[in-house]
């Protein structure tokens, strides 16, 4: 049966230039596009480990529909040609791990703003549609966090729910270099928006709210540097796998909403296949029902990992650590992130489905299956030497 869009029109097969296709989100998006659609993907990245299973065997049913191009977009003259060959460009490439924002602010700003400039320019000049990945961090802090601690207004959604078309972007002072990422993302959003307004660029901006699932980041010392600090899901998974305490930065009081990667990818596919409904829009993509503090996340992951691994939890599973000790000078944080879902609901009819418990259960099952043996081996080796 021919695929149709939300308005009942047939969807024609597209060629998609996906930059950063070898990362966490890119790997899930490539998988979805290969298994469920006729679209072709030109997959650009410096790494391809996470999509190798889609590229290697010649007899895969989608053989020939995905092509990997090992390209660093900082300096590669092939970029414009690949964008020109495509109907749509999706830009996922970025440095996006909080441990880098205050320790490598220059790399962070270059990656999230300067390196994205040619992508926007080539799309605009060649009349190509662009889906650009921004972040929920562009909202920064909530208005509510500036109210007195005991103010009843803190419970009023008007003071904390984040809306694409009306919430302000509130960052800390410049010396809090943590905001280098959010600020670079905000400026590239403004540039894309201006290209749309002045030059007619067809764009969609995605603001992910903590998408998590299998293949997110790396486990230090196994498939990433031993000293590396990945995002919270991989940090906590690593500690659970090694039977170490989970470190709670500043007591783990920040509140976050987590959405399952597979739910979020459904939203991206709707954007890809419904350009008239998605163009010109900025979309929050998150799950407002899955809110926890980082401390609660740690407790939930500990409980689920006991079930998945069959090993008892540590007597004291978590330990508090200051942000200065964990992230270094210049760290700061968003207090709370609840996405407003009105726009994505109205334009694309999308809603997240998976509960936090279920998404952590399937993710930790994957982490255990993928890494437990390898970690045991490295720990035995270290013990023996
Ligand atoms: P990721 O780090 O797993 O993927 C990014 C990919 O981009 C990596 O494979 C990396 O090698 C590639 N890349 C970086 N610089 C490149 C360059 N110069 N040339 C070629 N490739 C390059 O991150 P992700 O979680 O998949 O995130 C993708 C996008 O979504 C990013 O823009 C990020 O800021 C945004 N985002 C993600 C989340 C989330 O919850 N995962 C939240 C907010 C924003």
Low-confidence sequence ranges: none
Give the overall average pLDDT.
96
Largest sheet: 7 strands, parallel
CATH homologous superfamily designation: NAD(P)-binding Rossmann-like Domain
Task: Give, in order, the helices and strands.
Answer: EHEHEHEHHHEEHEEHEEEHHEEHEHEHH
Global geometry: globular
> What is the CATH C level class, in words?
Alpha Beta
The structural domain count equals 1
**Unique bound compounds:** nicotinamide-adenine-dinucleotide
Category by helix and strand content: alpha/beta
What is the count of β-strands? Answer: 15
Number of helices: 14
Helical residues, percent: 25-40%
Per CATH, the architecture is: 3-Layer(aba) Sandwich
User: Going across the major beta sheet, what is the strand order?
Assistant: 3-2-1-4-5-7-12
Instruction: From the alpha carbons, calculate the radius of gyration and give it in angstroms.
Output: 21 Å
Q: What gap, in angstroms, lies between the N and C termini? A: 61 Å
CATH topology tier name: Rossmann fold
Strand content: 15-25%
Features:
single chain; 385 residues; alpha/beta; Rossmann fold; two-stranded parallel ribbon; 39% helix; globular; binds nicotinamide-adenine-dinucleotide
